[in-house]
TrEMBL record, chain A:
It is a multi-pass membrane protein. Pathway: Glycolipid biosynthesis; glycosylphosphatidylinositol-anchor biosynthesis. It comes from Papaver atlanticum. This is GPI transamidase subunit PIG-U. Pfam families: PIG-U (PF06728). It comes from the Eukaryota. The lineage of its organism: Eukaryota, Viridiplantae, Streptophyta, Embryophyta, Tracheophyta. The chain crosses the membrane at residues 6-24, 63-83, 89-109, 130-149, 169-190, 197-214, 248-268, 280-301, 307-329, 358-373, 380-401, 407-433. It is found in: Endoplasmic reticulum membrane.
From TrEMBL, chain B:
The chain crosses the membrane at residues 573-594, 643-660. It holds the Pfam family Gpi16. PANTHER family: GPI TRANSAMIDASE COMPONENT PIG-T, GPI TRANSAMIDASE COMPONENT PIG-T-RELATED. It comes from Papaver atlanticum. This is GPI transamidase component PIG-T. It comes from the Eukaryota. One of its GO terms (cellular component) is GPI-anchor transamidase complex. GO terms for biological process: attachment of GPI anchor to protein. Residues 1-23 form the signal peptide. Keywords: Membrane, Signal, Transmembrane, Transmembrane helix. Coiled coil: none annotated.
Amino acid sequence: MAKMKWYWYWVSTSIIFRLILIYFPNNLNLSSRPEVATPLTSLRRLAEGYWLKQSSISPYSGSMYHGSPLLLAILGPLTVIRFEGQPEHIACSLLFVIADLITAILIRATGQKLHLSYKRSLKSLNVTKLLETSEILSAGDIAALIYLWNPLTIVTCVGMSTSPVENLMIVLSLYGACSRLAPLAAFGWVLASHLSLYPAILIIPVIFLLGYGPDTPPKKLFRQQKSESNGNDLVIQNRFSWRPVVHFILWASFWTVYVLVLCSIYLKQYGGLSEMFKRTHGFILTLEDLSPNIGVLWYFFAEVFDFFRDFFLIVFHVNILFMLLPLAIRLYHRPCFLAFIYIAISSMLKSYPSVGDSALYLALLGWFVYELAEMQFSFFLFCGYVGVTLLSPVMHNLWIWRGTGNANFYYATAMAYACLQIILVVESVSAMLQHDRMLRKQSTT
Amino acid sequence: MTFLRSILFFILLIQLFFVKSNGIDEEFTEELLLKPLPDRKVLAHFHFDTKTPPTKTYGHHHRLFPKAIYQLVQKFRIREMELSFTQGRWNYERWGAFDSMSSSNAKPPGVELWAVFDVPPHQVDANWKNLTQTLSGLFCASINFLESSTAYSAPAWGFRTFSGKLRYGALPREAVCTENLTPWLKLLPCRDKAGLASILDRPSIYKGFYHSQRLRLLSNEFSLDASAEAPGIVLEQTLTVVLQPHSHDTRSIYSDGRLLHPSWSISSIFGRAVAGKCVLANLSTIYVELESGVVSALNNLNVDLETGGHGADDMGSEGSWSNPGFELSVKPERVIKEVNSSHGKSFSILYEYSVDKYGDNEPFDLGFIWKLPMAWSCLHSPFHASRFLMGSGNQRGSIAISLRSTGSSSEGFIGGGDFFGDVCKVRVDIFQVVPWYVKVYFHTLQVYVDGKPELLKDILEKMHVSPSEDKVSPGVMEMVLRFPCSVKSAAVVIDFDKGFLHIDEYPPDANQGFDIPSAVISFPDFEPRMHFLDENSSSKSPMLLKLQEKNPVISYTEVLLVPLATPDFSMPYNVITITCTVFALYFGSLLNALRRRVGEEERFFKSKAANQTRLLPRLLAKLRGKQQEPTQSTSSSSLGRKLTLKIVLVAGVAIGWHYYTDYQSS
């Protein structure tokens, strides 16, 4: 009970901290930072799209707004609401704080489920030695607190970007899948893919989650155990159950149709759905906007010869898809971890990355604190993240505002950031595989 | 043969006679207007006008009208077109902003082109593109840059009212020089060999503070209501220069500190005198204009002198060409006075000279000698408009258009402004084109009146926006604002983000920045015009007719220079290789992590111990990126053999391919 109290204390302080930051004048200029607001997630562009819509021009005309029409319908009216004596966009800010809170709660709930199944599987494998360490603090609590107190999350929440909503949808889908609620999982997945396209690849872990249940050690181990003990006392089923998956697919198609119908109603006079797909998903895939962000693709496509542009666009997008299958084959028994890796990869290779994406996968990393305890380079990674987050604004300032540096300065930090993410992904994957190996050794000996 | 030829000649003569007898013929007039400016400079405005009757009645062959222009009109079905090349900025505060001279001849720096086509709306763009290419060749200028859809716009009503068939484009950075003037002069029947154009000495023109050469076409060849009385095609060519006459008079500073305006003559400002008219010209006239400010200053002077006991002509009634203030070296043939000035009490005066009777032996050289220092000010428009950028850095900024009320014409507001109930309001139209890399946030538009922010709906009467598309079209903003007449200053502010371009889209001098073309600010409530006594001669002169036309007051704002952040231009290969390396690192290491199996690892560690001593197999293994089995010593040699075999095979295939392609190509 004391633990619970302690947890809620930190949650409420994080919320209060956000509210204080919101009341700083001009949002601390965070909304114009390229690290926070990308062309896809910037609320300022959303306000422009809403203004165009209000003056009966297509919200997508003018290459300003590239988000979903649904966001426009919900957040648009909030951008023009003004309260006397309150900062601008207060309504949107409050909405983002609420979204962050819900995300944290869902992360905690999912984390607790994962923790439960982890403990159960360890027990069934008779590896009680590991259980002692994991009793200290639930992985869900850790993940939720990482999410709430991560400076990147706070900056995203205060900095007027719509990524908290996107993150909420992703987490909602994972939560739904973890608790085997097919409609909820489908809803989160459909909306998340509608908002930013890349979460579409999460269909693989979601189906695994629905089919196999939350993360477990490899099935092989249980079979071994079974054959050794010759008993039927194993509760963990290792058969793929099709029922929830079929439910998920039906619900997903239903939600897709629903979202598309809503969008087409909203955009009836302005070119309809084809215009929407061209301006949102097309914009993501063709990388038209070359304004700097923390990714590396903007500089690459600003410099690459036009002749090769299409080729490299295909190469970089296929790079995400290429790794899906090997990862799925190797990690199918750990769908949540698979989802974490997918999110990390897409936030590294996506066209317009922002710190909001890293905030999400860094929080999800908290789910696997006990599994990944043996991870290599973790201190180096931590220092690297701190260094890049400090250096990136400095380099941006030198290049854009002072004019004493050039684009390579900022590109170098983006490069370092990409390398850090690569190391994180690779090391966490190998640490997880190592953990499975370790479990096998422990359970057999 | 001779007989045939003579018959042909005869037919030709008859044809010519009939054409002549038709009454309407091609006409060419040349005129020059000289005007002293308040800041000791002289304005020279050349006006060449070529008219041809419609093709329907006149046919395709012309004596005077330039063929190139005729074909242009026919091919692109132009109804109206204006092309201007300008160097320098018109100084609205000193050279006038409230007369038809400034509103029709003051142009933004660089090239400005607009055209109205008489074609169905879907063909307009194609015609515009061809027109820009043609003009580019015709005038040796980079007008072809206006072909790209990012460079031109289709204003709805903000610029001029032609529904959908108008295209407007401007190149603010175009350098204007003699290579643009020469083709322009070639359109004149006498080129610059005779007539008024012969005094266009290149060095003295380009030495000036401002010069603007303009070409304006007006045709009703294709209009449906051919009954309109206007002739077929009118080509109006004007050249406006502001020059600084040299003053050699050392005693020009008077005791009371006032400066005597430098005296000038045609030969002193242009370097040569007018050697007769162009024989093809129907009219060849030179005017000297004294604007109302000078006239009233002279009147005051006369009144002073009269009270001092001197008898002098009353300027207002006589318009004398020699008076205590100044003296003209040649007696004017006619003095034209403005009769019903819309502004103030004083009238402007035109002295007219005909060049007909002058020739090579006796060139016409008009001198203007100031006798007493004079100070006057030109007519101001209701607002002085200027535009500037706010903010620093290369990420975002704001464009502000500031309107400062010119106090002198505050009484003009009452005459010009519209009344809404009891409140007098002044209408201001703003037309602005912004290139796509200046991404304007229209929802941030704010209007400040006398320094205080105002609600947009109180001021903004009408607005049309077409937002810019990245790499497709520029943003266009057309606004109608109504300010209360009592307003002292107003500002329109809008925020923008700066875009980032691809490395190829930057011009060679990328760090100089990018130009935003001038905004056009017009005051439709005010339509200054000159009224002259309706005499035959004045109605015949196209320039005087032009001066009497009703035109709203228009002023162009400054061109803005926006610096954009640049990538490193020397880096493409480095960026490509480094980025691809990082991606390869990701792909390779992740795949490696996934592929590695425990058993394999144990084997690997065992083999490592065994392989400690052998260098070559390890190197080879590294090269191949594969673990090598630590078996027998023969393995290394067999592996080497395999490798050489592979290399030989690949080389063989390459040689074969080479010969095959060689064979194919030969």
